[in-house]
Design brief:
Elements (H helix, E strand, L loop, with lengths): L17 E7 L7 H20 L8 E7 L4 H14 L3 E4 L3 H14 L3 E3 L15 E3 L4 H14 L4 E6 L3 H16 L3 E6 L5 H9 L5 E5 L6 H9 L8 E3 L8 H7 L8 E3 L7 H14 L5 H20 L3 H6 L5 E4 L2 E4 L9 E2 L6 E6 L2 E10 L1
Parallel strand pairs: 1-2, 1-3, 3-4, 4-5, 5-13, 6-7, 6-8, 8-9
Antiparallel strand pairs: 10-14, 11-12, 14-15
Helix pairs in contact: 1-9, 1-10, 2-3, 4-5, 6-7
Length: 370
């Protein structure tokens, strides 16, 4: 499926559209709600870019492919989009899927702007073809670890599923917390029922349990079990990967979903562009836009600027990454080389630790920023 290349108020043109590939998880087992927010931001960005004249008078057109959280499906989509002649590829939410897409785009010489995936090792080697908006996991999860330490948590339990992403998160947390006098113990949810996990947690001495698991299963049953166990009344439940960001979390868990701190990538106050875009996203989604929707919009703002510099030539577009700068919804965005990161990176992406207010589930409280 693809968006219309035109938008209300855009100048009419007979020029062919500039096609952009867009990757998003829009069906299960992907996190479809995150994919819908990402796509809403991408589509709004395209409409506004076209209303402003497109790329040298040529309208942008999104060619959307559903990755369904499947790395092989993402690789096949990148192959298909490259064959269709897209000028660049954008998007994706799931880190392992984005890594597969980035590797394939690099191999094909196709510019890829990753919107919302955080694995440090997005590619196996340095590349000129890939850029990223979201902060690397090592930075974000260290901010989360700082929050835990500041709140007095030194003994941390993690309920984890097997995954490159979760394993990377555990390593970051363990290295950082251990260096500051903390400990991390792992609970394998593939071997434990929620009730058995509560038994392990009750005897562990841990004061915080982090959910490094999928949503809604098994995250929701684990939260219900922990909240219902009187022995664990003082245990903080945390979700650094951001599961509580989306409305489905509150709908499924109600009050049990409050006070679960998570990472999101928004500043304390949105600049005027962010406020305006947020209002448009809110109207289009019929719900409060997540940080992922803002990332989608910013992706198009940066890609449009890169295309204006490089035209539709893929190599020239990729070569423009270090010179691209644009006002985004969360501040001014540009790319640089960050130590230990193989792709062009927005180094100043804002990071917050927030939770849902128990007095009003639709309201978020900022607990920590980094």
């Amino acid at each position: 499926m693809s968006t219309s290349p035109a938008s209300p108020g855009a100048a009419r043109t007979d020029e062919p559209s500039v096609r952009l590939g867009a990757l998003a998880p829009l069906s299960r087992p992907g996190w479809a709600e995150a994919g819908e927010h990402l796509l809403a931001g991408l589509e709004l960005g395209v409409r506004e870019a076209n209303a402003a004249g497109g790329i040298d008078g040529r309208p942008l057109e999104l060619v959307v492919r559903d990755t369904a959280a499947d790395p092989r499906r993402a690789e096949a989509a990148v192959d298909e989009l490259a064959a269709l002649g897209v000028a660049a590829v954008a998007g994706e939410y799931h880190s392992v899927v984005a890594r597969a897409a980035a590797g394939r785009a690099d191999a094909l010489g196709l510019p890829f702007l990753c919107s919302s995936s955080v694995l440090d090792a997005l590619t196996d080697h340095p590349t000129e073809w890939v850029a990223r908006l979201s902060p690397p996991q090592s930075r974000g999860w260290q901010v989360y670890a700082d929050f835990l330490l500041g709140a007095g948590h030194r003994r941390i339990a993690v309920a984890a599923q097997p995954s490159v992403y979760w394993a990377s998160g555990i390593r970051i947390l363990r290295d950082y917390l251990t260096a500051h006098g903390g400990t991390v113990m792992e609970l394998d949810v593939s071997a434990l029922t929620p009730e058995a996990l509560c038994e392990e947690l009750a005897g562990s001495g841990a004061t915080a349990l982090l959910l490094l698991v999928g949503h809604p299963e098994p995250a929701v049953p684990i939260v219900r079990a922990v909240r219902g166990d009187r022995r664990l009344a003082g245990v903080l439940i945390g979700a650094p990967a951001g599961q509580p960001e989306f409305a489905a979390w509150a709908a499924l868990l109600g009050g049990d979903g409050a006070e679960v701190p998570f990472l999101r990538y928004l500043p304390e106050h949105l600049p005027p562009l962010g406020a305006r875009v947020g209002a448009a996203l809110r109207e289009g989604l019929g719900a409060e836009p997540s940080f992922v929707a803002y990332e989608g919009y910013d992706t198009i703002a940066l890609l449009a600027e890169a295309l204006r510099r490089g035209g539709t030539d893929r190599a020239r577009t990729a070569a423009a990454w270090p010179r691209v700068a644009a006002e985004g919804t969360r501040g001014r965005i540009g790319f640089s080389r960050v130590e230990g990161i193989n792709v062009w990176q927005w180094a100043q992406a804002p990071i917050q630790v927030v939770d849902r207010d128990p007095a009003e589930l639709g309201r978020f409280r900022v607990l920590h920023a980094g």
